[in-house]
Design goal:
There is one protein chain. The protein has a single domain, classed as Single Sheet (N-terminal domain of TfIIb), CATH 2.20.25.30. It is 42% helix and 23% strand. A four-stranded antiparallel sheet has the order 1-2-3-4, with no helix packed on it. Strand 2 and strand 3 form a beta hairpin.
């Protein structure tokens, strides 16, 4: 339990990559709300990480299906 909480706290306090400005400046503002310090963009995400595992899976599936329909 102690190691699980440590993992969550490390991931929620780390900086993430901003897709809009291209810098590692995204930090957690509140539960599920992530904001970039440089460009000011606000993005919804997971509670402890910016991208949840299910969101990454859905995004890759949508991209794969989009590439199949274009080809």
């Amino acid at each position: 339990l102690r190691k699980q909480i440590k993992k969550m706290e490390v991931s929620q306090h780390s900086k993430y990559f901003c897709e809009f400005c291209g810098k590692f400046a995204v930090k957690r503002k509140a539960v599920g709300i992530w904001g970039c310090k440089d460009c000011g963009k606000v993005k919804a995400g997971g509670a402890y990480t910016m991208n949840t595992a299910s969101a990454v899976t859905v995004r890759s599936t949508i991209r794969r299906l989009r590439e199949q329909t274009e080809a």
